[in-house]
Amino acid sequence: MSAPNKSYDPVEVEALKPEEIERMRDEAVAAFAAAGDLDALAHAKTAHTGGTSPLALANREIGALPPHAKAAAGKLVGQARGAVSKALAARQAELEAERDARVLVEEAVDVTLPYDRTPAGARHPLTTLMERVADVFVSMGYEVAEGPEVEAEWFNFDALNFVPDHPARQMQDTFFVQGTTPEGTAVTTGDESGVVLRTHTSPVQARTLIDREPPVYVVCPGRVYRTDELDATHTPVFHQIELLAVDEGLTMADLKGTLDHMVQALFGADMKTRLRPNFFPFTEPSAEMDMLCYVCRGESVGNPDRPCRTCGSEGWIELGGCGMVNPKVLTACGVDPEKYSGFAFGFGIERMLMFRHNVEDMRDMVEGDVRFTRPFGMEI
Ligand code: DAH
């Protein structure tokens, strides 16, 4: 800044000469006009309006003028700066509009281009079949209940009346996660239970009975684990559906009617089931449930001219286990067996998918090849 200027002499304060101020203004306006894009304009803005721009420096010189000259010089500089910022704003708006118009063209999306080059995924047939089966029961008023896959040994075995040395508890059959039970020796209680990957969906029966007051009508779909090698008919991870009904006065006739309804809903109105005696610790009496062969409808039996590959001309296909809930299970879960009775049923979904759709190798279900899943349709 120049030294205080007692006798005002604009000639000596070069920067404040009107022609100088005009020149600075015109240069600034010209620089803005010349800026071809917003970056260039930002540079011009710093050069012509920043703290060290000619007009800002001229403005500082005003302080050094004698009082009577300050107003006129201030007006001059102020007007010039006003004109400069107006020109800047106008150019800024112009360049922004240009940029926006250009972006609209450059980044335009051609909505007519094909959009489905990446095929949509779809749900696995095991999932859709499991839901379809569960839906049959939901439509009868059952609720869906679920339990954990990492399960207390007590729920998986003890509550279901498996004796301590039952072979299913052994490590060749069951994945123990924690508190491994030495084969067939331990008796576990609720407090000191080991932890297993559940080997069936039946523990959800016990969980449900402990959680709710009868009447209980639940269907329990889920994933289960056993120490099997993966081959054409086994997989260490598979799916089951469990059914449990506990109410006053339920009998085996209710179980049979429910099973018949299920196979009719899934395989056709002329389907039926038959029960063969079997043993499960958690049902008494227990039965193996067969359904009429859905291919030959039983007509291959004793008819060598019409052999059936699906059922081996037996006329029936084994579907799962069932029975009346063992009173010991009801007692273990706090339900009075004098007042209530119940039935249960459980079966594997992989097996049902195999015979319902002629799948010959279970490995196809886990390998994730779309050539396997595509023919089942695209449920998303
Ligand atoms: N939990 C049995 C299994 O995995 C299947 C089963 C049998 C379930 C009889 C039941 C039943 O509910 O009543 O082999």
Automatic annotation (TrEMBL):
SUPFAM superfamilies hit by this protein: Class II aaRS and biotin synthetases, tRNA-binding arm
EC number: 6.1.1.20
Catalyzed reactions per annotation: tRNA(Phe) + L-phenylalanine + ATP = L-phenylalanyl-tRNA(Phe) + AMP + diphosphate + H(+)
Positions of the Aminoacyl-transfer RNA synthetases class-II family profile domain: 127-375
Keyword Nucleotide-binding found: yes
Main location: cytoplasm
Cellular location(s): Cytoplasm
PROSITE patterns: AA_TRNA_LIGASE_II (PS50862)
Free-text cofactor note: Binds 2 magnesium ions per tetramer.
GO MF annotations, alphabetized: phenylalanine-tRNA ligase activity
Cofactor dependence: Mg(2+)
Family: Belongs to the class-II aminoacyl-tRNA synthetase family. Phe-tRNA synthetase alpha subunit type 1 subfamily.
Subunit structure: Tetramer of two alpha and two beta subunits.
Name assigned to this protein: Phenylalanine--tRNA ligase alpha subunit
Organism: Streptomyces roseicoloratus
Encoding gene (name): pheS
